[in-house]
Design a protein that fits this description.
This protein is an all-alpha fold. The chain has 2 domains: 68 residues; 37 residues, no CATH class. The chain has 4 helices and no strands. Helix 2 packs across helix 3. The relative contact order is 0.06. This is Retrotransposon protein. GO terms for molecular function: nucleic acid binding; zinc ion binding. Keywords: Metal-binding, Zinc, Zinc-finger.
Length: 128
């Protein structure tokens, strides 16, 4: 009986070893029941994980659809690599060495002095 018990998959053997079993027939029946329960639990877990993956794909499709509806090119879900010039994560051209406002892209002032930024109620004292 022990030879059969130790030949079982570890998860089934663990479930069976927690029970008091008197004969070989009971051992086989308990092992079969444990295997069925474990397989059912695994299927449920896999289905739940698949639902999460599918929902994540759906959310990503909504993001791509939303960004393309604003006239922007659809972007991948990856974060842009750090800019080699300034080290920040941004897409497009880096404005650090251009001497232009980060908000309106016009020369002569920075964002904290930007008339467009201030007219929209931009934060006082910001420099970027």
């Amino acid at each position: 009986m022990n030879k059969y018990r130790y030949g079982l998959r570890w998860d089934i053997a663990h479930a069976v070893s927690l029970q008091n079993i008197a004969n070989f027939g009971d051992l086989i029946q308990k092992a079969y029941s444990a295997e069925a329960i474990i397989n059912f639990a695994n299927k449920e877990r896999n289905a739940a994980n698949q639902q999460k993956k599918d929902f994540g794909k759906y959310k990503q499709q909504l993001k791509v659809k939303d960004s393309s509806s604003k006239g922007k090119q659809a972007q991948s879900s990856q974060i842009p690599r750090p800019c080699p010039n300034c080290g920040k994560h941004h897409s497009g051209e880096c404005m650090k060495d251009k001497g232009v406002c980060y908000y309106c892209k016009q020369p002569g002032h920075m964002r904290n002095e930007c008339p467009k930024w201030k007219s929209l109620g931009g934060a006082e004292g910001t420099t970027m």
